[in-house]
Amino acid sequence: MNPRSAPESLSDWLNWPAEAVARWISSLPEPVVMGWPYNGTRRWYAGYRLANPEAGDYMTVLIRRQAEHHRLVFDHGVSVLLAPSFGFETLKRGEAYARYALEGLLQLADDEVYRQMFAAGLRLRFYGDYREALAAPHYQPVLEELDSLTRATAAGDGPLLLIGLFADDHYPAVARISVEFAGRTGRPPDRRELVEAYYGVPVPALSLYVGYEQPELFDVPLVTTGLEHLYVTLNPSPSLTEKQLREILYDHLVTRRTTPADYDGLPPEAVEELSRYNESRKGHTFGVGRVEPVSGMWRPVLPGPDEACR
Q1: Contact predicate 99/138, CB 8 Å
Q2: Pairing relation of β-strands 298-300 and 289-291?
Q3: pLDDT tens-digit profile of 194-245?
Q4: Cβ neighbours of residue 154 under 8 Å, at least 6 residues apart?
Q5: CB under 8 Å to 234, separation ≥6 — which residues?
Q6: Is the pTM of this model over 0.70?
Q7: Nearest-angstrom CA–CA distance, 303 and 310
């Protein structure tokens, strides 16, 4: 198989080995930059623990699961993965929870899967206002570990993992960076310079973003252009399968790249099909949900192929 040949169909793509997918993606003119907040983890762990009563501690299990998923993404040729993790809302859940969640970062260096990726050249950086948010003395070990991981992986020649910490209010940082840059150079930074100053490394524009359940785009400052493709999984992020990832990448790289329709040149049968489709989807809206009465949690309303929203 020629790695530069586009897949003939989704079924063809699903049958390619991961190495072939990665080679083909690497041959494309632009790198794939993926945003993927790892959300719904406590919901996922509740079900996981039910099916695996002997499962370990939530944080240990989650770190390993996330590591395996990050390896899966990079094994498929993604160059940059932005992973928004903690925002200021985390601190509102109480100090005990915040310390527990943040100290999970201390396990990154000890997880065998992450260690293998670091040894293979994975670069790891953290972005956001985490130094200001974690200024209290009891968070000092976390900050030291983040700095240590950044230094230890800086020389890698592999893909880039960017973990977002308190990146939900980036405007003060952007203003400060811009003022400091202008003070040094006598001019404001351009987009590339601003992105590199914020993240600490050059980061291309976001290609696609995979959310969970509620359609949202958040905590990936400065790299959005309005051209990125958005996806939403219905199960929590730790439930993502390789097939799902393949389908998302195929849709992003192949299906959505079709030539825009020439509406004036559509044959009558195409106009009729389009009209039928529009009529069948009348009243349907992605993102509308309801609160499930037993769990009290939001759930999306998903109509069947020929049903109206209920």
Answers
A1: yes
A2: antiparallel
A3: 999 999 999 999 999 999 999 999 999 999 999 999 999 999 999 999 999 9
A4: 123
A5: 213, 300, 302
A6: yes
A7: 7
